[in-house]
Amino acid sequence: MELINPTSVFNADIFSSVLVMSQVDVKVVLLGSSGCGKTSLVERFLHDRFEERYMPTIGAAFGAKRVKALGKILKLGIWDTAGQERYKAMSRIYYRGAKAAIVCYDLTDADSFREAQFWAQELLKQEDACKIYLCGTKADLTRGPEGGRNRRVDFYAPTDFTDDVNAGKRRKPHDSEELFQAIADDFISNPVNEPIVQELPSIHVGKDQPRPSGTWSSVCCSY
Amino acid sequence: MEPESGKKSRGIKVQSDLFCKSGCGFYGNSNWQGYCSKCWKDRLQQPSKSENVSRSPKSSPFARHRQSSPSGSFWAVFSRFEEKRSQQHEKRTRTMKSLFKKSHQSPSRDFSSVPFLEEMLDGVTGSSASSENTPSSDAFTEYLKTLSKPIAIDVLRHINSVTQKMQKMCEAGASPEELSDTAKEFYQSLNDRLRNHPTFGEATSEQLESMMDFTEKNVMTRLYKSVFFALSAQNEDKDLEIQKRIRSLNWISAAHLDCFIDELRPDIMALIDKAIFSAIEMDARRAPQDKLSCIVKCSKNIFEILRVSRERFGNVEAASADEFLPALIFIVLRANPPRLHSNINYIDKFCNPGRLLSGEAGYYFTNLCCAVEFIEKMNHESLNLTKDEFDRFMSGEALPPGVVFGANLDSLEAPWLCEGVRIMRGNLVTLNELASRDTKLEIGLDDLITDGATFVDGVEKMVDDVMAGTPLTSQPHKRPIALDDAAEATENLPPPLTPQILK
To answer: Where is composition skewed (Basic residues) in this entry (chain B) (predicted)?
Structure first.
């Protein structure tokens, strides 16, 4: 995985356009086979703790919310995508210009993990600037004395997969809120995003070395 | 030589000035604009003709006059539209040039001078109002008035210069891509300017954003005709192709797309119609963000459809993209919006790019793009049909079983019908119902008549019965007894009882 050269990103349309909006918008796409719990993730995100709500509950396909991260305020826009097989070919239209992607799989469904792998690979090929978050859902079904039997995706499968494609770090946020918080934090602290972050009142400079663009954060979240 | 009715001062003028302007050899009169009485009369009788003849930059007073009442002269404007537009463009260019000159000459000009601003406003909104008949320009004027004057003037200057530039590019036959680049460059440069220029120092970010909005709207509304025609010329083939494709896909029902919309319910049908209306309305809008807002409206209606449909199954969860995209495809298939490709291209090329890559409108727009791509690439696999079935349905040889022989044949409201036939069928059902009620009424009426007859008969019978039971016996008439008359009976009474007649 090559390091991203910040100047090469500058001339991308995405950056100039983000500048146009006074608010920093982060586009987050949500991928995953149908029925693996993407919708609940969005609903959780929109309605849990934060009192501020942008959209009435008419649909859970799109949601936007302000998130505080490292002293800045980001506006996360969550784009749900249709997960059915027949719409697979179109997903690349969705993740154009996305800054982060949450790839969901159902812990109780082995097929959904295979799908997730496909999407992750695809994202890696198409979108350089996009960070990928693997997210196993329905963890509650895998807990308890009976839970182990429901689990269809091996505990180490996601880790092995991320190792295969140049691993990042593995984190364990336990609910959707932490997941979105992590996305916001990563976005702010990623030096590639610095020109955008500068738009914010006080500048936070990235903490360490530039990270590879397609950094893997394997995330297991449950709710 | 004295003029017939001229003032003394005109005596100084050279002789040629005194003659009729038309050159007929008679003397002219200043009251008749220098014509002689005959020529003046002729001129008055053919005002339209002369106006046409003298159509040149000189006649701009005419154009200006018409501008002041755009609504009244709409048809006149329409008939000479092209001619007028180029003429106005010329005029606008000149006005703007002079304005620029003015402003350069006096940089320290007092910006609070109202006439200057008003003049510029006229330059922007007046010309667009008459030639484009847009309602947006009024809102724009109102909006500019809320801004402080230096800002308003600066924005106007930019708008005017980019509009002229793009107009010229259009006339020079520039490709839509070049125009798009110019527009995007303009958005970017204006944005930079708004952010960095000291004039705008005190404006808040919300103000700046709404200013970008209004600017985009105004510029694109004014350029719509030239830009969109260039685009639709380029996309004409694709537009027609997808229109034909959607027409040949008219047999697709909601069930084929895995979306559970009960098209037969009246309330859902009304919502579907609303969504379809918004999808079609998109073509009628000019500014990119207005087109986008049509898409948003359509999407909101689709969510409403999904919500109502789900309520029936007791499902109160909000709809996700898994349901939304199929429903959107379904609506696009039903609506068959005109010039779909041109519109999508237009939004893509001339909308402020920030709008499309984030935010709600951008999301729905992306979904629409997906829907269009799906419709174009749709094959038997994406509908879970065999190839043979799909081909037969496409060629119109056969119709899907669910459509024709469905359980709802009796309802006469099959979903594949067009609007007119659907209404006709709806009316037929109503008529049938009316007819059956009418029959019922007739039967009821007959019943009532029979009931009435039996009632009368019954009453008659009862009366007869009673009459028969109590026969009429005539009794002798009773005579009143005259007590005071001397009656024979009293005379026969024994002596103590003999009535005494008192006198």
So the answer is: 91-104
- The answer to whether residues B370 and B433 belong to one domain is no
Search chain A and give the residue with CA nearest B190. A20
pLDDT surpassing 80 at residue B21: no
Provide, rounded to the nearest whole percent, the portion of chain B with pLDDT above 70: 69
Encode B189-220 in three state secondary structure.
Answer: HHHHHHHHCHHHCCCCHHHHHHHHHHHHHHHH
CATH code for the domain in which residue B34 is found: 1.20.5.4770
Q: Taking CB atoms and an 8 Å limit, are B322 and A39 in contact across chains?
A: yes
Mark whether B316 and B192 lie in a shared domain: no
Domain encompassing residue B342: 254-406
What pLDDT does B203 receive? 63
How many folded domains does chain B comprise?
5
Q: What is the dihedral of CA B5, B10, B11, B15, to 10 degrees?
A: -90
* Domains of chain A, each with CATH number or no CATH: 2-196 (3.40.50.300)
Same-domain status, B187 and B217: yes
User: Residue A27 and residue A77: Cα distance in Å, rounded?
Assistant: 5
Span of A166-180, B52-66, B235-249, B356-370 with lowest mean pLDDT: B52-66
Query: pLDDT tens digit string along B271-297?
Result: 898 999 999 999 998 888 899 999 999
Tokens of A58: 């008419």
In chain A, at which residue ranges do the beta strands (DSSP E only) sit? 25-31, 62-69, 72-80, 100-106, 131-137, 170-171, 216-220
| Cβ separation B300–A64 shorter than 8 A | no
Q: Which position has the higher pLDDT, A86 or A205?
A: A86
For A66-82, the pLDDT digits (tens) are 777 777 777 888 888 88
Say if the ipTM goes beyond 0.90: no
Nearest Cα of chain B lies from the Cα of A101 at a distance, in angstroms, of 14
Both tokens of B50, joined, read 């002369």
Whether B235 is covered by a domain: the verdict is no
- CB-based contacts of B9, cutoff 8 Å, min separation 6: none
My answer on whether B346 and B394 are in the same domain is: yes
Q: Do both B22 and B135 map to the same domain?
A: no
Question: Per the confidence metrics, is the pTM higher than 0.95?
Answer: no
Q: Which of A21, A82, A84 is opposite residue B354, by nearest beta carbon?
A: A21
| Subunit contact B354:A87, Cβ cutoff 8 A | no
* Closest partner CB to B321 (pick from A21, A58, A82): A82
Q: What is the pLDDT of residues B82-138, one digit of tens each?
A: 554 555 555 544 544 444 444 444 333 344 444 445 555 544 444 443 344 445 566
The DSSP line for B115-180 is HHHHHHHIIIIIHHHHHH--SHHHHHHHHHHHS-HHHHHHHHHHHHHHHHHHHHHHHTT--HHHHH
